[in-house]
Specification:
Blueprint: E1 10-17, E2 22-28, E3 36-41, E4 48-53, H1 73-87, E5 92-100, E6 111-112, H2 115-123, H3 132-145, E7 151-155, H4 174-179, H5 188-201, H6 203-206, E8 209-215, E9 219-225, E10 228-232, H7 253-261, H8 267-276, H9 279-284, H10 290-296, H11 299-323, E11 328-332, H12 333-338, H13 340-347, H14 359-363, E12 377-380, H15 385-397
Parallel strand pairs: 1-5, 5-7, 8-11, 11-12
Antiparallel strand pairs: 1-2, 2-3, 3-4, 6-7, 8-9, 9-10
Helix pairs in contact: 1-3, 5-15, 10-11, 11-13
The structure holds adenosine-5'-diphosphate.
């Protein structure tokens, strides 16, 4: 905690705990650049840790890391903490910010995690069984490591909580909506960052009708009007909408009934198919990685790419309809920021929506990639979810 409001020797951690990974970033009281960032992957197996400093130089982990230290989230966090203590001995840790996938209907803004909040977040685990328990494991690990230090939750669902009822519900009996079966939408931290960037880059466009395409391993699109969420391609779970690395995207619920009744799959087996064996990987029988598919040139890889592009175009059309037109399309995420081919493919034949790319600018990964004469702007904006969490932590704990 700051002494007399002086935060100058304080820093704080941003944590993003997944099922087998822990992404970390260490920020000082001020500044957008992380002092340290990196990730631990394959937690529970052989554990791989990579940390770098603000200049991008690899930081050696603290001495004495034993085999097995990376076997759990708590162990991985302890290794990160020891490394921070070694490289930043004078820094006092004043807060920890967490990416929490699900804030339910209740939480539409970042907040300090009290015992009551923790209980509510635990109760939301059935809504996101593959993500929420891991996020909360990260919170528990940080609470144990830093007793008394504020833990701040930042929700991937919060950005979408303002969306109108028709885009928040399913056509199910109303009791399901009351139970919390809603279209929550995800990737909200990314959308918040990008709408903030849009306000700086192009305030007039930001005040208009924008679709943001966050195309990473997980992928979604969000319709935003004047900075506020209108509709999202992801719904109750992060499965809906676009095809993804290993997730199916939009699916006819009749297929799930077929898997249950005819194939006699258990819910766990269905979850494995939908979350881990579908999407680009399932269609290509090769890889979930767009780079590999682009390089492969096989008919199977081509089909996976074609399906990914078709889904993106359909979602874009649907979201533009919700906005009553389109002023700007923004690409983001690993694929959106880096794939010249996928951006071009998604935008082809969309001249009727005013979308036309400048091939040279697209190839250069310029920020503005639409053609001069195009009616609809197309931009590429690199997302930065950790920075959104960092800014929220500062605001919530009063750090400046
Ligand atoms: P996550 O959702 O796990 O954060 P990312 O946003 O890092 O994922 O995106 C990962 C995806 O981005 C992978 O499919 C990867 O192949 C793709 N990607 C990264 N660089 C390129 C590139 N140069 N060309 C095509 N795809 C790329």
């Amino acid at each position: 905690m700051a002494v007399n409001g002086d935060w100058s020797d304080c820093g704080f951690l941003v944590l993003n705990a997944g099922s087998s990974s822990l992404k970390v970033a260490l920020f000082a009281a001020t500044g957008d650049e992380a002092l340290l960032s990196g990730k631990v992957e394959k937690i529970g197996q052989d554990g791989v840790i990579q940390l770098k400093d603000a200049q991008g130089q690899a930081l050696p982990v603290a001495e004495g890391v034993a085999e097995g230290d990376l076997g759990t989230h708590t162990g991985a966090l302890m290794v990160v903490i020891r490394t921070i203590q070694r490289h930043f001995p004078a820094l006092r840790l004043a807060a920890v910010g967490h990416r929490i996938v699900h804030g339910g209907p209740q939480f539409n803004a970042p907040l300090v995690i009290t015992p009551d909040v923790m209980q509510t977040l635990e109760a939301l685990a059935p809504f996101a069984p593959l993500h929420q328990p891991h996020n909360l494991a990260g919170v528990r690990a940080a609470m144990a490591a830093f007793p008394g230090v504020p833990q701040v939750a930042c929700f991937d669902t919060a950005f979408h909580r303002d969306q109108p009822f028709v885009n928040d519900t399913f056509g199910l009996p109303s009791r399901y909506y009351e139970q919390g079966v809603r279209r929550y939408g995800f990737h909200g931290l990314s959308y918040e960052y990008i709408t903030g960037q849009m306000r700086q880059l192009a305030p007039q466009l930001a005040a208009g009708r924008v679709v943001v395409a966050h195309l990473g391993n997980g992928a979604s699109m969000c319709a935003v009007h004047d900075g506020r969420a209108v509709a999202c391609s992801m719904g109750f779970s992060p499965l809906d909408g676009l095809a993804m690395g290993t997730r199916c995207g939009q699916i006819d619920p009749g297929v799930l009934l077929y898997m249950l009744d005819q194939e006699k799959l258990s819910s766990a087996e269905i979850a494995r198919v939908l979350y881990h064996e579908s999407g680009l990987l399932g269609l290509s029988d090769l890889s979930n990685d767009m780079r590999t598919l682009e390089a492969a040139g096989t008919p199977q890889a081509q089909r996976a790419i074609d399906y990914f592009v078709m889904r993106a175009q359909r979602e874009l059309g649907a979201l533009a309809a919700q906005l009553g037109g389109l002023d700007a399309l923004v690409f983001s995420g690993g694929i959106g920021e880096n794939s010249v081919l996928i951006r071009a493919r998604i935008c082809e034949r969309l001249g009727w929506m005013g979308i036309e790319l400048d091939p040279a600018r697209n190839a250069e990964h310029a920020t503005w990639i639409s053609a001069e004469q195009a009616r609809t702007a197309v931009l590429v904006v690199r997302t930065h979810e950790e920075l959104v969490i960092a800014r929220s932590v500062r605001a919530v704990v009063g750090m400046a």
